[in-house]
Amino acid sequence: MFKKIFSAAVAALLITSAAQADYSSHPGAAAFVKTMVEEHNFDRDWVLAILKQSEAKQSILDAMSRPAESVMTWERYRKIFIQDSRVTQGVEFWKEHLEELTRAEKQFGVPASMIVGIIGVETRYGRNKGSFRVVDALATLGFDFPRRSSFFLGQLEEYMLMVREQGIEPFSLKGSYAGAMGYGQFIPSSYRAYAVDFDGDGKVDIVNSSVDAVGSVANYFKRHGWRLNEPVVSSAVVKDGVDESFFNAGLKPEKTIAELRAAGITGDRALAPERKATAMKLDGDKGDEYWIGLQNFYVITRYNHSSMYAMAAYQLSELIADEMAKVTAP
Description:
There is one protein chain. The strands form 3 sheets. The protein has a 4-stranded antiparallel beta sheet. Strands 1-2 form a two-stranded antiparallel sheet. The chain has helices at about 1-20, 30-40, 45-55, 60-65, 70, 75-80, 85-95, 100-110, 110-125, 135-145, 150-165, 190-195, 210-225, 255-265, 295-300, 305-330, and strands at about 130-135, 175, 235, 235-240, 255, 265, 275-285, 285-295. Helix content is about 55%, strand content about 10%. The radius of gyration is 22 Å and the shape is globular. With about 325 residues, it is an alpha+beta fold. Strand 7 and strand 8 (about 285-295) form a beta hairpin. Helix 8 (about 100-110) runs parallel beside helix 13 (about 210-225).
């Protein structure tokens, strides 16, 4: 135990000491600038100026070292997102954007409830889009977070391409500590790949346009394989002595329903035996909860690679749908 604590302390010290204010002089800056200039035809001085003005944020490094999904139980995690206020606000958002959500559901084949649920989990319907300058977050993580440096330098590259394409002032956008932006919290590569101009104003703006955000979340789900009118999850009943290796083995549905049943894990009887699924065990407020995740559940995890995240987003969407049905009933 002492060795683990010591190692963690040393790692934190190294990260802290590594963070610097002027990223234009960082040892990794030359290669990054070279890529932007030679592969994307950026002006060298412009790229250097962005790096020079980017600010290192220790709070970002600290947050990345302890994401909620890795340190919380399902019981605690669920309570963050499944709240009466978030459901009520979701109904309000749905009513306010009824036309756009109906259009998105028809165009992309993704339920309005799921779109609203994602935006509710991510930013509480735009109320909390993040307070960090995106360029600071990406530079800090790209240059001073070794474990995921390659990924975040790639996102910094995507961000510079994005602001050039959209004509955005690079220091104007704020987002999460991981550099995600807007109502739906898209990272730069997702912004470029999946964001759409859903309000028809000629701009793709998921930061300020809630309508663009609605269409973009729906497009993201469609492009990742959402299947219209198919189930998402099923609660499961588990026989005594089931092999624990069946649970939480992965997010991707790779076992068939028939295989799970043969192992003693039974979900909704209406599920076809050949349907692919994944079995999950979550530590809920009343003890272990058993679930079977299907293709659409896996699609939700493409947004955030966590079964707890996907479950929270889905359960929130269902609660919002139930309340919406009550207020719109004749």
